[in-house]
């Protein structure tokens, strides 16, 4: 085991865990002075029960394209909802009654302070007869590899919106 800061060997039977800049790390004795030493986590009292539990390893979990959302909320959903409501000459109270939501929720959504979940978005779409969800294309991320090392980076994939 190595120190996560300097790389020096750390004894495996007694590693030092220190909280440095908000992160808990395994460090050597010299580097432990840079932060606050953390106590070792308590050992479970019922060791037999621990053995019967199946270990869950989230790293090996297989994700598929089906797990990814295929619809995305439009960028100016708040304006679209407000304009559709006003075009029908409905107050926020009337819209709230029609979709069974509180006025405060509708107000927060129309002012952009809250983003509606999929269920609420579908209620708005049905009541106001508007389209708030748009389909997103599944991107082939390999097409964005453009740096010299040949690795994908977030900067290669994202489209940065400039003001």
Keywords, separated by commas or semicolons:
three-stranded antiparallel sheet, 6 helices, two-stranded antiparallel ribbon, elongated, 434 Repressor (Amino-terminal Domain), 11% strand, alpha+beta, single chain, 5 strands, 163 residues
Explain what the structure shows.
Helix content is 29%, strand content 11%. The protein is of the alpha+beta class. Among the domains are: 39 residues, no CATH class; 65 residues, lambda repressor-like DNA-binding domains (434 Repressor (Amino-terminal Domain)). The strands form two sheets. A three-stranded antiparallel β-sheet has the order 2-1-3, with no helix packed on it. Strands 4-5 form a two-stranded antiparallel sheet. The longest helix is centred in the middle third of the chain and has 11 residues. The two termini are 47 Å apart.
Low-confidence stretches: none
Count of DSSP-assigned helices: 6
* CATH 4th-level superfamily of the domain at 71-135: lambda repressor-like DNA-binding domains
Terminus-to-terminus distance: 47 Å
SSE class? alpha+beta
Secondary-structure element order, as H and E? Answer: EEEHEHHHHEH
| Count of strand segments | 5
How do you describe this structure in short?
By secondary structure, the chain is α+β, with helices and mostly antiparallel strands.
Strand-helix topology:
Elements: E1 16-20, E2 23-27, E3 36-37, H1 47-52, E4 71-73, H2 77-87, H3 92-99, H4 103-110, H5 118-128, E5 133-135, H6 154-157
Antiparallel strand pairs: 1-2, 1-3, 4-5
